[in-house]
Amino acid sequence: MKVSYTKALQAPSIILLLLWMIVPLSMTLYFSFMRYNLLYPERTGFTGSLNYDFFLTDPALFDAVLNTLTLVGSIITISVVLGMGIALLLQEAFRGRGIVRVMLISPFFIMPTVNALIWKNMFMNPVYGLFAFVSGLFGWPIIDWLSDLPLLSIIIMLSWQWTPFALLIFMTSLQSMDKEQIEAAEIEGASFWSKFYYLTLPHLSRAIAVVIMIQAIFHLSIFAEIFVTTGGGPGYDSTNTTFLIFTQALLQFDVGVASAGGVFAIIIANIIAFFLIKTVAQGMAK
Amino acid sequence: MKIGYRNMKRLKHQSTVAACYILAVIFFFPIFWMVLTSFKTELQAISVPPLFFFEPTLENFSIVQERSDYFKYATNSIITSFGATIFALIIAVPSAYSMAFFPGRFTKDILLWMLSTKMLPAVGVLMPVYLLADSAGLLDTKTVLIIIFAMMNLPIIMWLLFSYFKEIPNEILEASRMDGCSTMDELRHIVLPLSWGGIASAALLCIVLCWNEAFWAINLTAGDAGTLTALIASYSSPEGLFWSKLSAASTLACAPIVIFGWFCQKQLVQGLTFGAVK
Amino acid sequence: MKNLKILAGSAILAVASSAAVQAGELTIATVNNGHMITMQGLTGHFEKANPGVTVNWVTLDEGTLRQRVTTDIATKGGQFDVMTIGMYEAPMWGAKGWLHSLDFGSDYDVDDILPAMRGGLSANGNLYAAPFYGESSMIMYRKDLLDAAGMTMPDNPTWGHVADAAAAMTDKANGLYGICLRGKPGWGDNAAFITTMANSFGARWFDEEWKPQLDSPAWNHALNFYVDLMMNYGPPGTPGYSFNEILALINEGKCGMWIDATIAASFVSDPSQSKVADVIAYAQAPVAVTHRGANWLWAWALAVPAGTQQSEDALKFVEWATSKEYIELVGNEVGWGSVPTGTRSSTYQNANFLAAANFADAEMKAILSADPSNSTQDPTPYQGVQFASIPEFQAIGTAAGQQFSAAVAGRISVEDALAAAQKAAEREMIKAGYY
User: Fold this and answer.
1) What's the pTM?
2) Within an 8 Å CB–CB cutoff, is residue B123 touching chain C?
């Protein structure tokens, strides 16, 4: 009796998400097999696999997929490692810890477009940016970030924005750690690394899995930052799959091909999720 | 021996504190620079070398105030972000509770499926959603934004809440059940207070995600229901220098959330102290 | 008696409520450029002259605006009553019947509108969008630097001369770059500019059979010239630079020359935002083998979508904002240097304007010399100087722009860039069913 009642508590979330998923997804699947360009509303009809053919034979596709994987992998690695390190540093109380916490979390509050514009114009510009200025002061070579290292520049921007996300979750999770256990280990002379490896890390494993899964989903569809800073270029250096879909959806207004691209994106995301689950999220439901 | 240990501890503590301050400054610096720029003229904003000291001006803020109805956009942002978060929490809390404490065979799969609803990039699904919203007569309403924001972030909240609920030690729950606690009581009197920090952090993240959501907020609104992200869009990349104005607009757009975050961070650290409870 | 009262009462209600529906709220979508912001500020005048109408502004950056209004008009969403569109969309959408044809009274003096503007915004002889402000492209250069190098700039220079001037003005050790040009990928960004360059080298986007011509020798010459010019005399970071980035550079005194929209002149010559305001001079856009299509033509125009509920008020607004009276209003209230230009010949005969804008001459010459239906050496099936007014061009131009920026970043050779751009163009044209 109790068990079925509690199962019912899950119903609203499942039903709502099911609707939210089914309706757009089925429309997308439908459109992906149809000819549907907003600017040519008179051209309709079933086109079979033509939309998929077009999307998958894009010369930019291979680079786009590679860039997408690079982006997801790098940003997650940086933000998890950095976020965890900072969360550990913040565990001990000290004067001004509250302000420091807010300062560290604040990058997440900035809008992605503004984030991108700040980095592009105020920091990374090789003529009037702050990085160029500082490099000049120290005699270091001036790096043309967005032209020579576009993907890395985007990774930096996004890691800056998402490390606070990881930090916040780790901080919250660390609060529930068993302090007595840690103190006992310290009294027995355990080193920092063994404390970390045998006590902290297992406790945080679920939080790490959550951060990785959530960030993976977000980073697969990075768009605004790329659009504002590099426009996908130079060449295909900073094009990802979402940018390709954007080109079809909002430059060409070709809903058919964009939908095919969307289905492709879902398949890629599922493959990535599959690998992540096997490696990271195994112990989630334990 | 004992003295050496204490000195070591103090040295470690001080270097930890120093590292925290340095990291805080590094992470906060771009925001500081943006706020600084909002007090510069456009010419000062682009100057080479970058200006740290200058005569501040409030003209950018008054331009933003004159040009656009900041309060209308801010109100819309508040209503849609908080509305969506509350809606999502009401659905997610009982659901995550049920999954965390009465897990079934499919719990993990359901959670993964929930996350997979976010796999379709928004740009790819704009047309279907736009057409749906149009036929429902919901274009340019706060309602449609609340629904979309809530659905977009429901999986995130579910995952976060599930993870925090899981951290509540089983002994506490077993003790309460042995005392004859009903499910609802258990949820309200034990689980919620203990995981309050976790719920607060999930709520804060959801509010921020909704607050900064630009794609749907711009594409589905036309002046009535626009949020602060639409306001920002009116300051970015026009023909002509715009950085100090954009900085001023962004400062105004992010300020409410940063202030809210400041009040929240106290909440975040309460609650999850299970060691003491034991 | 009672029935009559009820009838009278409901009749009054019906009239009153229908009046409430008509006197309504106009939602206007516009781009966030300076002239539009000024128009927003002057809305009160329109509202006073048309009691009962209030205006609700939606201001967005160009790319987002285009996406938003195209989505709305193509799905007949009816969200906007007036849209700000450009020379790219107006002929296309007018021909599809998506816009109201504009037919104002004689007071409006539609013949005062510059012929190229009027033609560029019409389809089948009907005007579908009223030009709010227009621009062409021209050279803005540092006269002081050129004098110091002992050179001059003729009014109609060749690209060769421009390259020499750039070489003479470049001093990289001191952060001075002879020429700054757009490099950010985008059909309206680097592709637009490079298209005008290519036009002047004798190239065209498509031949009469709509086959892309990016593998032609003319395109090769043009792109090679651009890449060499930027690599030798251009600033670092060019692959990311659009209008505002270069504006910042030139206003800070880092550029010797800039070839871009004529509206830039009003920013570079404004002492409150430019350190070089008084040493900038102007010349027409450079040519190589032909002057056709060497300078672009663009207008931001106001149009009324066919699906709007408030067409009467919307048309009134469009008429107000693009009239001679509006230009007078801006001149008197804001300043004659800030009036929207490039639309009417009467503006260029106005003594107040000519006195306030030292670039008026050069700008007018540029605009008058651009013709969207005659922009290439060889005949073409498309309209447009720096774009082809076909729905496929946004994607094609952006894909080509990505390749161009890769070439100027030194990633790939010019030949490879053009080959990749050609392939991208062919794919889109085949998919769209041209052949």
Assistant:
1) 0.90
2) no
